[in-house]
UniProtKB/TrEMBL annotation:
GO CC term (a single one): endoplasmic reticulum membrane
UniProt feature, compositional bias: Low complexity: 14-23, 33-56
Record-stated family: Belongs to the class VI-like SAM-binding methyltransferase superfamily. Isoprenylcysteine carboxyl methyltransferase family.
Single GO term (MF): protein C-terminal S-isoprenylcysteine carboxyl O-methyltransferase activity
Membrane among keywords: yes
Protein's name according to its UniProt entry: Protein-S-isoprenylcysteine O-methyltransferase
Broad EC category: transferase
Keyword 4Fe-4S: no
Native source species: Kwoniella shandongensis
Length: 307
């Protein structure tokens, strides 16, 4: 999980080379005329002092301009903006849901069960927290990709399959939802497991900070350290462990049998291969220190195949 070095303000504005063999091409200079009709010089790469982005301990501050100065009683960071936006959006959505109650009574059938709503909320919160933790504690890797919405077709196919199984069961096997596996005690237990798994993943990303990456890195940067405290003293890949139990719990919540088994098998195979690949690099980065750490701490995944 190698990371990029802590950037300066200028580096955050100026594109940096990619980690591939081909350097990232420089952006073309603007062809739009300035108010006085003169185009900016393509040789000028120094950002204007009136507009700058600076890293802080709580994330990236928004650009400062000569047109408006923030009042300062709220954190002027991307992390704060994203959290406030999500909270306001959630309040608006809840209010609209209350207002639309008569409509939902008409269109909602037996498929509109509480567990479906909890599942949708859990998926949305997962993607929000992926961005929040990156914006707050790992700003070097902050981009729209941090939401993990473009996390590969297989991820979306898996959730689509789970929803399909739920709706097929609702329409053709409704008695399935009258069993103990759809009773409140069981659903409450599954929800608690799902929430705890989400907390494990998000907290692992926070504790690893700049040493965490959504992709396996093959280059060690100066700020990449071996994290062995906190959750990393319990599991050596706690973010993977948290995601595994979170994903399986979402399918248990929906009462899916086929999808639950499928998620367990597919995720076990995926994380086994990923951990083996990632640890090859971690051993190169940290040598005997990582080998000893690996001997002491397991993965806490129920089906982990090291070969």
């Amino acid at each position: 999980m190698a990371t990029l070095s802590a950037p300066t303000a200028t580096q955050l504005i100026t594109p940096t080379p990619s980690l591939s063999s081909s350097p990232t091409p420089s952006p073309e200079p603007s062809r739009l005329p300035t108010p006085n009709g003169i185009r900016p010089s393509p040789l000028s790469s120094t950002p204007s002092p009136s507009s700058s982005v600076t890293p802080t301990g709580n994330g990236l501050t928004l650009p400062k301009t000569d047109q408006y100065n923030a009042r300062g009683n709220l954190p002027n960071t991307i992390f704060a903006v994203s959290v406030i936006s999500a909270v306001l959006g959630g309040i608006a959505a809840a209010a609209l849901a209350f207002a639309a109650q008569p409509f939902w009574r008409i269109v909602a059938g037996s498929w509109a069960r509480p567990q479906l709503g909890v599942y949708i909320a859990a998926v949305a919160v997962f993607h929000l927290l992926e961005f929040f933790t990156t914006a707050g504690w790992n700003v070097q890797k902050l981009s729209v990709d941090a939401f993990l919405l473009n996390n590969g077709k297989q991820y979306h196919y898996a959730h689509a399959f789970g929803l399909a199984e739920y709706f097929v069961s609702s329409f053709f096997f409704p008695r399935k939802f009258n069993s103990r596996l759809s009773a409140s005690p069981w659903l409450t237990l599954v929800t608690i497991i799902m929430v705890c798994a989400q907390v494990i993943r998000s907290l692992a990303m926070i504790q690893a900070a700049q040493s965490f990456s959504h992709i396996v890195k093959n280059k060690k940067h100066d700020d990449h350290v071996l994290v062995t405290h906190g959750l990393y003293s319990w599991a050596r890949h706690p973010a993977y462990t948290g995601f595994f139990y979170w994903a399986v719990a979402t399918q248990l919540l929906l009462g899916n049998v086929v999808s639950t088994v499928g998620f367990i098998l597919v995720l076990s195979k995926f994380f086994s291969a990923r951990i083996v690949d990632e640890e090859l690099w971690l051993v190169k980065f940290f040598g005997d220190e990582y080998i000893e750490y690996r001997k002491r701490v397991g993965t806490k995944l129920p089906f982990y195949f090291s070969t």
